[in-house]
Amino acid sequence: TLSFDFEVLSRNHEDIKAKPEDGCFIYGLFLEGARYDPDEESLVESRAKELYTSMPVMWLKPVGDRVIPDSGMYVCPCYKTLQRAGTLSTTGHSTNFVLPIEVPSKMPQAHWIKRAVALICALDY
């Protein structure tokens, strides 16, 4: 089966002049409930009164028969809009759900799940 490896890049999207050899670069996502710290290269707690933060550029690399890492990642749900609910499709996922994205984390999955951390494509729709 085909899936993705995810790499958070330290470069700004304006500095990227060429497409990757394989996969694609994405930017413009927002984190809700946490923030990404480029110095720690990991998810960290949000600052006070900080609802949404920009996620750095990510590189989605297609990989066949990929083994999902046991630790060091938070499998973060990505939604089209802030309203996470949508109609349930035949796949069992909400129509607002895009895909799970693995974000580096030093905390266990449960830590971020309790905080309802998610990636959002558009803050206003």
Keywords:
125 residues; mainly beta; five-stranded mixed beta sheet; globular
Molecular structure report:
- The N and C termini lie far apart (33 Å).
- The chain is built from 1 helix and 10 strands; from the N terminus they run βββββββββαβ.
- The model has no long low-confidence stretch (mean pLDDT 89).
- Strand 4 and strand 5 form a beta hairpin.
- With 125 residues, the chain is mainly beta.
- The strands form 3 sheets. Strands 6-3-10-8-9 form a 5-stranded mixed β-sheet, with no helix packed on it. Strands 1-7-2 form a 3-stranded antiparallel β-sheet, with no helix packed on it.
- The radius of gyration is 15 Å and the shape is globular.
Summed up, what is this model?
This protein is mainly beta and 125 residues long. It contains one helix and ten strands; from the N terminus they run βββββββββαβ.
Strand content: 35-45%
**What is the mean pLDDT?**
89
Give the biggest beta sheet.
Answer: 5 strands, mixed
What structural class do you assign from the helix and strand content?
A: mainly beta
Low-confidence stretches: none
Question: Radius of gyration, Cα only, in angstroms?
Answer: 15 Å
Taken from the alpha-carbon principal axes, the silhouette is: globular
Number of strands: 10
Q: So how many helices?
A: 1
Please write the string of helix (H) and strand (E) elements: EEEEEEEEEHE
Distance between the termini: 33 Å
User: What is the strand arrangement across the widest sheet?
Assistant: 6-3-10-8-9
Helix content: under 10%
